[in-house]
Design a protein that fits this description.
single chain; alpha/beta; Rossmann fold; four-stranded antiparallel beta sheet; 15% strand; binds 5'-O-[(L-methionyl)-sulphamoyl]adenosine
Length: 503
């Protein structure tokens, strides 16, 4: 059976992981963990993009061969993802043999089919971004619109992919599948881009200018353009049955979901699907394009010097608090501004709403019932619980993660109000109310059980701790929920889940 296959972008191995990479990866991880909870078999791919000019420049600056830098950086990314509790199944590196073989096979097939042709190119080129620009785009100053470095005028032989030929087919696909790219604002950006005639795509670079890449199989003097190389790593990572290195593995392509930032949407929603169409491969089922974390209204990036290191934040507040803030405070798809104040507000929400509910519930069961509830008890708030479960899944399926988290936290708020109204401390004083006190406590435990499931994709570590505290042997999946509730054992109080002394 094919797994639910989802991917992050394949990150440039030329720079350290920062908050932007962390956000994309945590978002994808949360969606992967959610899918596993629904009972799906999941394959989650991430990795490093190790060829091209940026890599070559970064290695030269460090005085090391590009492969050595790639090895060190791949290790660095894996370490960062371990620290941030990322549950990827496969880490692809574009310098792997299986991938080099797949790219070369694909290029040969496209060449034989006439999808690729040679031509002379003259025009503006940004060496750093490795891309061509029109005269209008570089303006009179001849500056790269992306990185603001000066561009060069070049004339050279190049190989082109007949991308323009697929424009109508792509437009039809988008119009027939209005939820193919989410959110809708990003879909509209792509449609805007496709309003202009779509040109062909240069897919090679002469080795005289750049030799760090995959050799074009039908012309030894060129390497493959780094974006074409990297995009196909999604197919390599799906265990595509490539004849040379990977003959009979089980294949997960097409991806069910590809998560990308808005800055790399054109490559994923235009270059990528047209390359797949020409290769005779199915398109990914969905693309989620998220926004940027901003600082003082500009994108956080290394060159702007305004980057927040997620790994430093994690040291102070813990991994789950970082994951929570990033997903809770950004509407999935829009931009958001990072501030320490907002971070603390979201941390306080964890401590005051969820943390408080946990400590009150467990202490009351310890105090009034010696840490144990009788097996089967009537519970209340069933409607609220069911509604939250339904809406949570609806929002997650629609990829509105921020809304899913919001309604889960609302259930914790309702449980706190329930405590306030039922006053278990008053019930405890009246022996005639013993059964009803059981009901109140059981209702609270039931809500905590549901919350461990709902919050576990975003806060796996804390929810594992909570599951143990309320006597569960493992994190319940959606299917398990009813079952584990009736077979639950004893409850333990423990330290605050979200201590406030580090604020
Ligand atoms: N190597 C290419 C992707 C090739 S995929 C076949 C690449 N790599 S990258 O290292 O630059 O990673 C970019 C990812 O990080 C994108 O998803 C991008 O949107 C994300 N972010 C980088 N800075 C960001 C913010 N400030 N905020 C949120 N995400 C941003 O592009």
């Amino acid at each position: 059976m094919k797994s639910y296959y989802l991917t992050t972008p394949i990150y440039y191995a030329s720079g350290e992981p920062h908050i932007g990479h962390a956000y994309t990866t945590i978002l994808t991880d949360t969606l992967a963990r959610y899918r596993r909870l629904t009972g799906s078999q999941v394959e989650f791919l991430t990795g490093t993009d190790e060829h091209g000019q940026k890599m070559k420049e970064a290695a030269a600056q460090k005085n090391m061969p590009p492969q050595e830098l790639a090895d060190a950086m791949a290790k660095g990314f894996k370490g960062a993802w371990a620290d941030l509790d990322i549950s990827f199944d496969r880490f692809i590196r574009t310098t792997e043999d299986a991938h080099v073989d797949l790219v070369q096979d694909t290029l040969s097939q496209l060449w034989e089919k006439g999808e690729i042709y040679a031509d002379n190119y003259s025009g503006w080129y940004c060496i750093h971004e490795e891309r061509y620009w029109t005269s209008r785009e570089v303006g009179e100053e001849h500056i790269c619109p992306d990185c603001r470095r000066p561009v060069e005028y070049i004339e050279e032989k190049n190989y082109f992919f007949r991308m323009g030929y697929y424009q109508d087919k792509l437009l039809k696909h988008i119009n027939d599948n209005p939820k193919w790219i989410v959110p809708e604002t990003r879909l509209n950006e792509v449609l805007g881009f496709l309003n202009q005639p779509l040109g062909d795509l240069s897919i090679s670079r002469p080795k005289t200018r750049l030799d760090w890449g995959i050799t074009v199989p039908f012309d030894e003097s060129h390497v493959c353009y780094v974006w074409v190389d990297a995009l196909f790593s999604y197919v390599t990572g799906a265990n595509f049955p490539n004849t040379q290195s990977n003959p009979q593995k089980h294949c997960n392509w097409p991806a069910d979901l590809q998560v990308v930032g808005k800055d790399i949407l054109t490559t994923h929603a235009v270059y990528w699907p047209t390359l797949l169409m020409a290769s005779g491969l199915p398109l990914p089922k969905k693309i989620l394009a998220h926004g940027w974390w901003l600082s003082d209204n500009t994108k956080m990036s290394k060159s702007m010097g305004n980057v927040i290191d997620p790994l430093q934040l994690r040291k102070k507040y813990g991994t789950d608090a970082v994951r929570w803030y990033l997903l809770r405070d950004m509407r999935t798809g829009s931009d958001a501004t990072f501030t320490h104040k907002r971070f603390e507000t979201r941390y306080e929400e964890l401590a005051n709403v969820l943390g408080n509910l946990v400590s009150r519930t467990t202490s009351m069961i310890a105090k009034y019932r010696s840490g144990q509830l009788p097996g089967k008890i009537e519970t209340e708030l069933g409607e609220e619980i069911d509604k939250t479960l339904d809406n949570f899944q609806k929002y997650m399926d629609e990829l509105q993660v921020h809304s899913a988290l919001e309604i889960a936290m609302d259930l914790a708020r309702q449980a706190n109000v329930y405590i306030f109204k039922q006053e278990p401390w008053t019930l405890a004083k009246d022996p005639e109310q013993a059964d009803y006190l059981d009901t109140v406590l059981a209702t609270l435990i039931k809500i905590l059980t549901v919350l461990t499931t709902l919050f576990s994709p975003v806060m796996p570590e804390k929810m594992n701790t909570l599951a143990k505290r309320i006597g569960l042997s493992k994190l319940p999946t959606f299917k398990d929920l009813d079952l584990v509730f009736s077979t639950r054992s004893s409850v333990e109080v423990g330290k605050p889940l979200f201590p406030k002394d580090n604020l």
